[in-house]
Write a structure and sequence with these properties.
alpha/beta, TIM Barrel, 11 helices, globular
């Protein structure tokens, strides 16, 4: 069995279907062209690369707080899909429980778009997520995690860090934000997505300058708390990307099939409840 056929759970992908679900009028970025990504296209990606399940993350781009497209996708998945929603910080417990009943298993914080201060008063929300056994999908970049770490860890919520924490590639593994991420591996409630290399590399594919960060994450979190994700359809990517070369990159990183099974299947299945 080759890497393309090995069973996988994609822990970070998006559907953007403005023909069926028009973009929100107030979003800052409106994906277009090859960023348009209806479910029908992603189903072909799943079939080509052995993806059995997917966690769709509601994008700030295009939809913002509008989760209708996300909920539609989950509803059409016949148990294959779950979701991460973008919500208002003031959302109440009943509304979170309603989302959970539809297959939404957590919410997204994206400090790279909204800024750190936007989430300063969300301690009660995070504690409610922890009580409901829902997840936080947290996207930060550079040293933003330094300011958010205490808020997240003190809440008790289980958190997935998107795209390796998006460190500054030129800053090395000792930069404060990345060290904060490595330290979170000790709390037993944090996983990290090995994905989105184009979001923090300063080089073209195969993003060799990200390797020291990936190695450090694997050492700190182990494969028991590392997750693979495609980041399809690669919003704002600086160059053309495809799932196939990204999987070959995983194959080079983890040459043993048993290790890839943990990353592709065992760990995400445990974290996401598939």
């Amino acid at each position: 069995m080759g890497v393309f056929d090995e069973p996988k759970i994609d822990t970070h992908c998006h559907v953007l279907d403005p023909a069926r679900f028009p973009y929100a009028p107030d979003v800052a970025y409106r994906p277009s062209g090859q960023e348009i990504a209806p479910l029908e296209q992603y189903l072909q990606v799943m079939d080509a690369y052995g993806i059995r399940h997917a966690l769709f993350v509601g994008p700030n781009s295009g939809y913002g707080l509008d989760n209708r497209c996300l909920l539609d996708v989950i509803g059409r998945g016949q148990g294959r899909f779950k979701g991460i929603a973008v919500v208002r910080n003031e959302i109440d417990r009943d509304a979170l429980m309603q989302l959970r009943s539809t297959g939404v298993i957590g919410i997204a914080f994206n400090a790279t778009v909204m800024g750190v201060q936007h989430y300063a008063g969300t301690g009660a929300l995070l504690r409610t997520l922890a009580e409901l056994d829902m997840l936080l999908s947290l996207q930060v970049e550079h040293d933003q995690l330094v300011d958010l770490r205490a808020l997240v860890e003190n809440s008790g919520v289980r958190v997935m860090i998107d795209h390796g924490g998006r460190p500054a590639a030129e800053g090395g593994v000792d930069q404060p934000g990345f060290q904060a991420l490595l330290a979170m591996a000790r709390n037993g409630r944090t996983a990290v997505k090995l994905s989105g290399y184009q979001k923090f590399s300063s080089q073209p594919p195969p993003y060799d300058d990200t390797r020291p960060f990936i190695d450090a994450l694997l050492e700190a979190f182990t494969l028991d708390n590392c997750l693979w994700a495609s980041d399809w359809p690669f919003l704002k990517a600086p160059q053309r990307l495809d799932v196939g070369p990204l999987l070959r990159q995983v194959e080079r990183l983890l040459p043993h099939e048993a290790d890839r099974r943990k990353l592709f299947w065992d760990t995400p299945r445990r974290w996401l409840g598939f």
